[in-house]
């Protein structure tokens, strides 16, 4: 299996001169993060040996290499979800390819519905921790024989969202004047593709979940397993309906619309974070 990741990494290395240290996974409606990369080399997923295909609207299906503020990055314009029918191994395939390419830091973004009372559509939540619901019942990308070349059989997950990067992102948000819609909280992954029932929403709320979506946790588990430093952002695109009296309901078009609305703020925050993070070692530069 290691060979499959290596083959894809070798193909990419022979098709681009970029050697990224940072990888970004763009969530629903957040694909524009890739647009600001300079000196781009872009590949359709369908042209990359071993890569799965994106099937969801708002996920373009392109891997983009380039420079952002002098740092070399690779950006997934479109991710893979379990509900598309991919195995969890396939949904997280690119993360191990990034590791083999020399990536040290993974930035994950997603669109999510909020459960926390003080959260509103348009808020940006720094992910402090996650609840991996599929993982709790054994749907885990690390299931099966462990590949010791990537990491240990029983990896710790108690510190998978890097504290230094979380603090730095909050400082940057204050400096950019967007602290008013920044939050920090717990993301839960559910399987989807249906949105939550009211009873499910109430359950998640009572369990202390701040935002819910259908992705991210498997990618972060695989990244933490192979020693990548992780930073995660959820764009709150809707409130999850928790009341039987509420006549509103969520839809994917609305999710994408909020993505477009906040695209610039997310882009500015991620760009500045990358610009200020120390590459090549694990020390994060403090805000000025
Ligand atoms: O998690 P991302 O890919 O941002 O997408 C989120 O938005 C879609 C639902 O609108 C789901 O796929 C959910 O997971
Ligand atoms: O309300 C939601 N629930 C699950 N996934 C989501 N992705 C965007 N919004 C939501």
From TrEMBL:
Residues reported in the UniProt entry to bind a purine D-ribonucleoside: 196, 238
Residues annotated as binding phosphate: 28, 59, 79-81, 111, 215
Record EC number: 2.4.2.1
Protein name (Swiss-Prot/TrEMBL): Purine nucleoside phosphorylase
Residues in Nucleoside phosphorylase domain copies: 21-274
Family per similarity comment: Belongs to the PNP/MTAP phosphorylase family.
Entry keyword set: Glycosyltransferase, Purine salvage, Transferase
GO cellular component: cytoplasm
Single GO biological process annotation from the record: purine ribonucleoside salvage
Subunit structure: Homotrimer.
